[in-house]
């Protein structure tokens, strides 16, 4: 029997890695993906800040580019794949394209929210995160069938940013992959009424902490852009994560995942006698109701009507749905304690 050619050996190794049979369990650390999603003009605004000399080009659908970073002489360069979803929430179906079993273990999400449009903030955030999480959960489920070890490691990795003795560990629900929430146009936001800024800051802090995400605000300030560049470089190339923190609502927020707490964030910003008027099913639902009381959605007709993608028939996946139901039942017991403590 003739010996295999070098090409045949390489091809077989790639196929083995994709099927999950390799001892290294798949994607090499030197190759990562970062997916930018967010407000219709928020993502474009952020990317323009990074390339001020280039004229802004609105993303029409889904765009891709890549970057490389040298590690040393005769050492292969790290590669970062950058995806950008255009159209705000109008193209949710495209979210599934870059999220695959081959890329998921080194995949990160950057959610960019336009702070200058607080009435659009919650529906944009909710629709994009729900649709993204649903797609990620489906891929993890499929990955588990081929490589149960890799799927198990991903589920454990969700908790990597939260210390084992953190008091909120039983009250949060980490996003299945690394998530960074960036509030853009801080230069406009800083001129808002102080009470409005307080509500927006506390709400975004709660959402970020609940999902085990990092949260930061940015603008045209070079100092802020340097911080954001550092965060993106960490996601794309594994550069050391910043431990900086700023929770002062009168300054640009910068909170690395796992460094905040519910006790520091406090209760939803409403008088105690008003909180009891909200019939919330969960802490997230309570914060949503409080936020939308002050900032009712104005552009709901321009947003894609996906109140809950998990209930959308086109995304039906029996095994994923069954696991979701079991997890929701467990969470409800824990969430009742938190909600009751607010009354």
From TrEMBL:
GO terms for molecular function: dynein heavy chain binding. Belongs to the dynein light intermediate chain family. InterPro entries: DYNC2LI1, Dynein_light_int_chain. It holds the Pfam family DLIC. Keywords: Cell projection, Cilium, Cilium biogenesis/degradation, Cytoplasm, Cytoskeleton, Developmental protein, Dynein, Microtubule, Motor protein. Its main location: cytoplasm. It comes from the Eukaryota. GO terms for cellular component: axoneme; centrosome; ciliary basal body; cytoplasmic dynein complex; microtubule. This is Dynein cytoplasmic 2 light intermediate chain 1. Residues 302-331 are annotated as: Disordered. GO terms for biological process: intraciliary retrograde transport; intraciliary transport involved in cilium assembly. The keyword Cytoplasm applies. It is found in: Cytoplasm, Cytoskeleton, Cilium axoneme; Cytoplasm, Cytoskeleton, Microtubule organizing center, Centrosome.
């Amino acid at each position: 029997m003739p010996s295999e050619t070098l090409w045949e050996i390489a091809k077989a190794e790639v196929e083995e890695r994709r099927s999950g049979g390799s001892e290294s369990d798949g994607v090499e650390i030197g190759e990562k993906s970062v997916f930018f999603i967010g407000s219709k003009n928020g993502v474009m605004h952020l990317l323009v800040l990074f390339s001020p000399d280039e004229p802004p080009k609105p993303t029409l659908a889904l765009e891709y580019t890549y970057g490389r970073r040298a590690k040393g002489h005769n050492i292969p360069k790290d590669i970062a794949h950058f995806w950008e979803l255009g159209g705000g929430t109008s193209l949710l179906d495209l979210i599934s394209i870059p999220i695959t079993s081959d890329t998921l273990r080194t995949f990160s999400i950057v959610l960019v929210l336009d702070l200058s449009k607080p009435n659009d903030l919650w529906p944009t955030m909710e629709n994009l995160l729900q649709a993204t999480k649903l797609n990620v959960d489906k891929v993890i489920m499929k990955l588990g069938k081929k490589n149960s070890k890799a799927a198990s490691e991903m589920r454990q990795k969700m908790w990597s940013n939260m210390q084992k003795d953190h008091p909120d560990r039983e009250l949060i629900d980490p996003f299945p992959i690394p998530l960074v929430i960036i509030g853009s146009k801080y230069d406009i936001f800083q001129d808002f009424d102080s009470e409005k800024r307080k509500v927006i800051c506390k709400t975004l802090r709660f959402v970020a902490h609940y999902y085990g995400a990092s949260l930061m605000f940015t603008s045209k300030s070079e100092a802020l852009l340097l911080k954001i560049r550092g965060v993106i470089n960490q996601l794309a190339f594994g550069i050391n994560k910043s431990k900086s923190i700023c929770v002062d609502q009168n300054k640009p927020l910068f909170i690395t995942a796992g460094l905040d707490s519910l006790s520091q964030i406090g209760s939803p910003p409403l008088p105690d006698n008003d909180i009891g008027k909200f019939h919330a099913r969960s802490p997230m639902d309570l914060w949503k109701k409080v936020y939308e009381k002050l900032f009712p959605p104005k552009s709901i007709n321009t947003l894609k009507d996906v109140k809950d993608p998990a209930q959308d028939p086109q995304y039906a996946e029996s095994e994923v749905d069954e696991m979701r139901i079991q997890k929701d039942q467990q969470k409800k017991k824990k969430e009742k304690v938190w909600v009751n403590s607010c009354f």
